[in-house]
Amino acid sequence: MGYRSNSFASNLRRKNSNIIGVIVPRLNSSFMSDVIAGIEKVVNNNNYNLIISQSLETMKKEASNARAMLNNRVDGLLVSLAYDTTSIEHFEPFIKRKIPVLFFDRIFEHEQYPQIYIDNFKAAYEVTDHLLTQGCKRIVHITGNQLRNVYAERLRGYKKALEAHHVDFDEQLVIINDLSAKEAVAATEAILKMDPLPDGIFTVNDVSAVSCIQVLKKAGIKIPEQIAVAGFNNDPAACVIEPNLTTVNYKGYEMGEAAASMLINHLADRQDLQQTHSLILRSELIVRESSRRK
Amino acid sequence: MGYRSNSFASNLRRKNSNIIGVIVPRLNSSFMSDVIAGIEKVVNNNNYNLIISQSLETMKKEASNARAMLNNRVDGLLVSLAYDTTSIEHFEPFIKRKIPVLFFDRIFEHEQYPQIYIDNFKAAYEVTDHLLTQGCKRIVHITGNQLRNVYAERLRGYKKALEAHHVDFDEQLVIINDLSAKEAVAATEAILKMDPLPDGIFTVNDVSAVSCIQVLKKAGIKIPEQIAVAGFNNDPAACVIEPNLTTVNYKGYEMGEAAASMLINHLADRQDLQQTHSLILRSELIVRESSRRK
C-alpha cells in the first residue's frame, strides 16, 4: 500500500483525522438536504472529509451514532438533535477529549456547546402578528415536541404576539404532532370539526402547511378569506401550492455553511468556539397569497 | 488516547476502514436526498461509516473527490456521475487496488464497474406512449446532457414511442438544458412562441415540469386540454402542483438501499459484484391530471 498516500496513518501521528462528523434527525427533508449541501461545500473546500449519519429522530440512535463518530476520531461534530432527545450525555466524551461539538437548528442550551440557530421566537412572533394584522382572531398553531427549542420558542412567539394583540391564548388551538404530512391531514380534519372554525393556521413547517391547505381546499374552505395559512422553512413547495404559502425564509444552505465554517475556523485556531458560543442567523417572513387578505 | 477505541488504527492493521464513500452530483435535490437517506440507513445498520461528497456537476471536482476518497482508504465507493463527466479514468486507481466502485442512476457503461439503474428507455417510452394515447401529436421533450445514460436512454424511449405511433420525430421539439427551474421557465417561454403550439411536454425531471406548468398557466394555457405535461421522478411537488403531475415513480430511497446493500454484501464476500454486474430497479408511470384527457 506504500504507493497510496496513507492519510489516516499520518493522521494518527498528527492526532487529527481531518474528518468532520454530522448527526442529523433525517437526511431527506428539503431543509436538511440544503444544510448538508452547505456543510459539504465548506468542508470539502477546506480539505476535510464529511462523515454523516441520521438519528432517525431517536435519542438511542443518536447516541449510537455519536459512539461511532468518536471511534472514527472525528476532529469535530455538527449535531441537530433528534425529536425525543432528553439528555446530551452521549456527547460528553467529546468534550472530555476536547473535540468540539456544535449544535445547529435543534440545539441544547449548555455552556460547553456552541450553537447556531435562528431567532425562532422572533420569527414565530412575526408570523402570528402578521396573521392577527390580517384580521385573524382564532389561530390554530400546529407544532412539534416542546423538548426541542425550535418548537418551544415558536410557541412562545405565537403566545407573545397574541398577548400584544390582546387575544386570549386558547390551549385547545395548539396541536402537537410529529410534523409529517400524514399528521397534518389528521390535524386539519380535526380543525374542520371545530365550532366555531378557526380563521388562521400557523404550522411550524411547510410540509404541514401544504397538507393543511390541500385538505381545507377539498372541504371547500376559501384561503385566505375563511382561513389564512402560514408555514415555516420556505420549502420549494411553498411556491407550488395554490395559493402560494406565506412562510419564514429559513436558509438551510447558509446555516450549513456557517456551522461548518465556525467549526473549521476553530480547528484551525482561528476562532475560539467558547468565546463565540452562539451564532444567530437571520430569517425573514415572506408574505404570500395564503394569508394576504388586504 | 488509550481509552478510546482506536478503530482507524486497527483498521490499518486489518487493511480495511469500514468506510463507504459516496460521490453524487448534488446533495440537495429531492431524489438525491432520498438516495442518501437510503444508503445511510443500510451503511449504518451494517456498522460501516459513510463519507459523502458532491461533485457539483463537474468532472474536475468529481476527480478531486475521488482522490480524497482513495486517501481516506474507503472500502468501497458509490458514484452517480457529474453532468459533464467524459471519462472515468479517475476511478481506475480503485480498480487497481481492488476497491469496488459501483455506479448508480447516472452510470458509465464499463465491464469493470457494477451498476444500478432503472430502465430509462422503457420508462420514457411509457410516458411518451401515454401522451400519444391521450391524443398528443406534437410532444416537446425537455432533457439533459446526452453524455449521461439517463437522458440519452429517455430520448431513445421518446423516439421509439413516436415511431410506434407513426409520428415523425422532429428535432426542433427536443430542448436540452441543465434541468433547473430557471431553464425550464426559459424553455417554456420558447415553447409558447412555437407555431403551431405543441400539445404535449415531457420533461426528464419534475422540477422542470412544475415550472413548465406554472408558466403555461400564467399564459392562460389549459392543462391537459391544450398541452398535456408529464415529468419524471415523482418528487413531493408532483402532488402539490395543480393539476397534479403525471410522472415516473423513481424510488430514490430504495435505490440507495439497494446500492449500499450490493456493495456491503460484496465486501462481506456474500456477493460477487462482477457476476451481478447490473441491477435494474423497477419504476412505474403514475398518471395524474396534468395529462389525463380521457
How would you summarize what this structure contains?
2 copies of one chain form a homodimer. The first copy, chain A, has 10 helices and 12 strands.
Fraction of residues of chain A in helices?
25-40%
Task: State the order of secondary-structure elements of chain A, H for helix, E for strand.
Answer: HEHEHEHEEHEHEHEHEEHHEE
Chain oligomer state: homodimer
Strand order of the largest sheet of chain A: 2-1-3-4-5-11
Which stretches of chain A of 5+ consecutive residues score pLDDT under 50?
1-6, 8-13
Structural class of chain A: alpha/beta
Main β sheet profile of chain A: 6 strands, parallel
Largest interface: A-B, 49 and 49 residues
Radius of gyration of chain A over alpha carbons? 21 Å
Q: What is the typical, i.e. mean, pLDDT of chain A? A: 93
Number of domains of chain A: 2
CATH fold description of the largest domain in chain A? Rossmann fold
Query: Shape of chain A, please?
Result: elongated
Number of beta-strand segments of chain A? 12
CATH class of the largest domain in chain A: Alpha Beta
> What count of helical segments of chain A does DSSP give?
10
Strand content of chain A: 15-25%
Keywords (chains A, B): DNA-binding, Transcription, Transcription regulation
Protein name (chains A, B): Transcriptional regulator, LacI family
GO molecular function (chains A, B): DNA-binding transcription factor activity; transcription cis-regulatory region binding
InterPro entries (chains A, B): LacI/GalR-like_sensor, Peripla_BP_I
